[in-house]
Amino acid sequence: EEQQSILLESASRFPTPEGVKLSYGTAGFRADASILQSTVFRVGILAALRSLKTQSVIGLMITASHNKVSDNGVKIADPSGGMLTQEWEPFADALANASDAQVLLGLIIEFIKKENIPLNGVRSAEILLGRDTRPSGESLLEAARQGICSILGSVSLDMGILTTPQLHWMVRARNKGIKSSELDYFEQLSSSFRCLMDLIPKERKISGVVDKLTVDGANGVGGEKLEVLKKMLNGLLIEVRNSGKEGGVLNEGVGADYVQKEKVFPCGFGPNDVGIRCASLDGDADRLVYFSVPSKSSNKIGLVDGDKMLSLFALFIKEQLSILSKGGDGKLNNYQARLGIVQTAYANGASTDYLKQLGLEVMFTPTGVKYLHEKAAEYDIGIYFEANGHGTILFSERFLYWVEARNDELSSLAKGSEQQKAALRLLAVSKLINQAVGDALSGLLLVEAILCHIGWSIHRWSELYQDLPSRQLKVKVVDRTAVVTTNAETLVVQPPGIQEAINAETAKYPQGRSFIRPSGTEDVIRVYAEASTQEAADSLANSIAQLVD
Ligand code: NG1
Ligand code: ZN
């Protein structure tokens, strides 16, 4: 009736571009911004339906992360602050690709029935909108708003320009009924950071790392947010370059993706930066890598990637857990917390060896944060990172409840003891590190607090283990779906014969490891190879790429 005619009318204002088929990949829909109006409008409808279905607040973020400035994209944050449930992805695809308004309406009616979505539920739909700094963001946000409005009674709140993790954090906080503004986000991060700094052993505080951190903001949203955050940190000095105000282009020769893939320093950095501690964010600040410039004579960097961040975090958490378990006093001292590490096949083999050597449980999932996040959530403390710098630490409710209680108990039994400090540190980490999704800003503050705590320079940190030389290539193919993998993408099952050929090739190289998989975000097959020397890794990657061609 009224609802249907509103949907038809508004949908007809957003015709789909000719000959474009999109798919809700590991990072939502992404494409050249000029063809995304109808997609974003339809994702607005999807977000409203998701909000009605869950009777919760939903997030809608407009960003294309590390991709070029002329691209854009859209993704949904579920009530927990995590990614859209995988069960709804096929519906997202169907909506985005519906040929006209009538077909679209049919799909929506059918889906509402199938999912039993309450159109007249207790709560109407509520969606938080965010976007990165891309110029196309404003008009795409308007398209999203139109989509949301076309579901009667829906409310959208424009939260302005945000990092992706900020929006996810807000959605999570709002659904938990806790303070959820951008200022609340900054306050939670900065106060838990200061808390960790206050808990640093006194002797370390004197000799600790106090030199400033220099950050490449990728000419995106992260730089400007870090400028705000850094004023609230008491004592940590941060210099932001490539904040976007200097006129540089988003992600062009800058940013975490560039730095990690090319292994060279970003624009704005140079020979004068030899030896200093540097970090790089991606375009929407959900990825973070550290680096240093080893010599004046080359643009090569010493990369400290997601695997090494993961290792640093694991080391610190493990130590706090072990301190905490040493106190034999109290009724609550015998909780065995399960610490789990989650990686993908792209994790450098040396990092996996290192983590296993520490006695940690290491699990593998396919590429894509949603898989890692889901796995990490199975532990009391689950630490996950992709090598490219996206990751976080998840704490279970059960564990946090226990640490709170243990801390209370220690307050009366052993106030100010090492055990109590360890409990307080774990609580602070759980507030600092984003529980919804990987977050470059909170990750950066945690790295800084830990380096300070253990008195390490970036060089000491990067020597935790030696990365095995690796090479990533991509091969354009007609149909990437022809390659089907299993075992966290480490084995090919389709087409037949390829895996045997990969095995035979890999066996020729000392410490050789390689795999291929279809990209979830680009029309390519990705090739990864690792071996004992760079030449060997390059050569192995090249021969595997030829098998694919
Ligand atoms: P694909 O295109 O599926 O390899 C890339 C990254 C992922 C993840 C997604 C989403 C690599 C090898 N892959 O996925 O880690 O970040 O983009 O942005 O870096
Ligand atoms: Zn990103």
CATH architectural label of the largest domain? 3-Layer(aba) Sandwich
Placed side by side, the strands forming the largest sheet appear as: 1-3-2-4-5
What is the subunit arrangement here? single chain
- Secondary-structure-based class equals alpha/beta
Q: Just give the CATH class of the largest domain.
A: Alpha Beta
**What is the general shape?**
globular
User: Helix content range of the residues, please?
Assistant: 40-55%
CATH homologous superfamily classification of the largest domain? Alpha-D-Glucose-1,6-Bisphosphate, subunit A, domain 3
In the CATH scheme, what's the topology name of the largest domain? Answer: Alpha-D-Glucose-1,6-Bisphosphate, Chain A, domain 3
Q: Could you say which small molecules are bound to this protein?
A: 2-acetamido-2-deoxy-1-O-phosphono-alpha-D-galactopyranose, zinc ion
Quote the distance from N terminus to C terminus: 54 Å
Average of per-residue pLDDT values: 95
Q: Uncertain segments of ≥5 residues (pLDDT<50)?
A: none
Q: What is the topological layout?
A:
Blueprint: H1 2-12, E1 29-32, H2 37-54, E2 57-62, E3 71-77, H3 89-97, H4 101-115, E4 126-131, H5 137-149, E5 155-161, H6 164-176, H7 182-198, H8 202-207, E6 213-216, H9 221-230, E7 238-241, H10 256-262, E8 278-281, E9 288-292, E10 302-304, H11 306-326, E11 339-343, H12 349-357, E12 361-364, H13 369-376, E13 381-385, E14 391-395, H14 397-413, H15 418-432, H16 440-454, H17 458-462, E15 470-476, E16 484-486, E17 491-494, H18 498-506, E18 513-518, E19 524-530, H19 534-548
Parallel strand pairs: 2-4, 4-5, 6-7, 6-8, 11-12, 11-13
Antiparallel strand pairs: 1-3, 2-3, 8-9, 9-10, 13-14, 15-19, 16-17, 18-19
Helix pairs in contact: 1-4, 2-3, 2-5, 7-15, 7-16, 11-12, 11-15, 14-15, 18-19
The structure holds 2-acetamido-2-deoxy-1-O-phosphono-alpha-D-galactopyranose (NG1) and zinc ion.
2-acetamido-2-deoxy-1-O-phosphono-alpha-D-galactopyranose is lined by residues 26-27, 65, 346, 367, 386, 388, 390, 519-522, 526.
